[in-house]
Specification:
By secondary structure, the protein is an alpha/beta fold. Helices cover 39% and strands 16% of the residues. A hairpin with a 3-residue loop joins strand 1 and strand 2. Helix 4 packs parallel to helix 5. The relative contact order is 0.12.
């Protein structure tokens, strides 16, 4: 009956999936794993806007229904609560694979289980990072192989580790600690890239790999521990901004709409990658705190805290490859992008406070 269901789904797919959209392009059916998350939900908005059919797969580990609730009732939108660590059968044209617990707060989540997860799969809790990266990516690649879909992996600049090359080009192999506290994320993504390339070479799956640098914007988790969300939430709540270490470490911050445009350009283009997708503007954490202060509250203060282990000292993408081959580059500076995130955070923090009082 499984076979029968598959055949039925495929038949339906070929009826609904071939409806022309605009001029010269048929409507695509697209899966976005992690589509209820921060980046995923913005990507879903863009795909729905341009007329495609979108199926979101999310287990709501860090994502929220609220991020996609505005599409409920749209016949071109579907939301499936599902853990990508488990297999799933769908008939689709493209797979954007974003599902991954991406917040640093979760890095240290039960590290022993994280290691063992490679060996004994049933033993593992469903939000395990390494397992999601490995088993989740494997399942989505298996799906892509079966139905001939194009598969895009959202990898990360963390594959460069604490880089010895600056800025980082895609040709750099990275400097990652394999046994550190954040290794389950870094190595999980590195393994996911390896899997994607193996399916590309071995099974002819059309693969696309994005290496995403720090991204911010509306709908980010309020308390997931990333630096931009921390500083913005702290400044709004009139708390000191927590600078880890001496604050001289650098990052490059990309506004979410720039990233989404890059992901779509990569998916639609002819190149496998990997491609760095990030904004080359580089800021120390002290400089970032200054910008947040300018944008939100000139009386905001900072407070120093000990840094986490293996924290990369600097990070800045070299995006020449994406510029040349995808004709893509980010358009929105930190000072332009931050205010959009701030108004979203202000509303959500206000609602939270009202919720507490009620
Ligand atoms: P996010 O946490 O907001 O989104 C991840 C989504 O995946 C969430 O909705 C979560 O519920 C879902 N998810 C997690 N595990 C799952 C599982 N096993 N099955 C199904 N769904 C699952 O994070 P984000 O910032 O939107 O990140 C999206 C992707 O981009 C991730 O793969 C992340 O590693 C990558 N990335 C993000 C950044 C960034 O700065 N935001 C940087 C580099 C890479
Ligand atoms: N898979 C899936 N959906 C599909 C096809 C495959 O979830 O439509 C899963 C499958 O269960 C397996 C993984 O993807 O765990 C890899 O599949 P593949 O066919 O490449 O490998 P095999 O099943 O032969 O090990
Ligand atoms: N960081 C900080 N204060 C915070 C949270 C993070 O100074 O409240 C620092 C962190 O030590 C790191 C940088 O900000 O050097 C970026 O951290 P994030 O977790 O946002 O991203 P990643 O380390 O993955 O690049």
């Amino acid at each position: 009956s499984n076979n029968h269901n598959q055949r039925t789904a495929r038949t339906l797919g070929s009826q609904t999936g071939r409806v022309p959209v605009g001029i010269g392009r048929r409507r695509l059916r697209i899966v976005v794993t992690g589509g209820a998350g921060f980046v995923g939900s913005h990507l879903v908005d863009k795909l729905i806007d341009r007329g495609d059919e979108v199926i979101v797969i999310d287990n709501f580990f860090t994502g929220r229904k609220n991020n996609v609730v505005h599409h409920f009732g749209n016949p071109r939108f579907e939301l499936i609560r599902h853990d990508v660590v488990e297999p799933i059968l769908l008939e689709v044209d493209q797979i954007y694979h974003l599902a991954c617990p991406a917040s640093p707060v979760h890095y240290k989540y039960n590290p022993v289980k994280t290691i063992i997860s490679l060996l004994i799969s049933d033993f593992i809790h469903d939000c395990d990072i390494y397992k999601t990266n490995v088993m989740g990516t494997l399942n989505m690649l298996g799906l892509a192989k079966r139905v001939g879909a194009r598969f895009l992996l959202t990898s990360t600049s963390e594959v460069y580790g604490d880089p010895l090359e600056h800025p980082q080009k895609e040709t750099y192999w990275g400097n990652v600690n394999p046994i550190g506290e954040r290794s389950c994320y870094d190595e999980g993504k590195r393994t996911a890239e390896t899997l994607a390339m193996d399916y590309h070479r071995g099974a002819d799956v059309e693969v696309r790999i994005a290496r995403i640098f720090n991204t911010y914007g509306p709908r980010m988790c309020l308390d997931d521990g990333r630096v931009v969300s921390n500083f913005v939430a702290q400044a709004i709540r009139k708390l000191p901004m927590t600078v880890y270490g001496d604050g001289k470490q650098t990052r490059s911050f990309q506004y979410v709409s720039d990233l989404v445009n890059g992901l779509v350009a990569l998916m639609e283009g002819e190149h496998v990658g990997p491609f760095n997708l990030g904004n080359p503007g580089e800021f120390s954490m002290l400089e970032l705190a200054e910008v947040v202060k300018e944008v939100i509250d000139s009386s905001a203060t900072i407070e120093f805290r000990p840094n986490t282990a293996d924290d990369p000292h600097m990070r800045k993408p070299d995006i020449s490859k994406a510029k040349e081959l995808l004709n893509w580059e980010p358009k929105i500076s930190l000072r332009e992008g931050l205010p959009h995130m701030v108004s979203d955070f202000q509303n959500r923090i206000l609602n939270e406070d009202e919720g507490k009082q009620a």
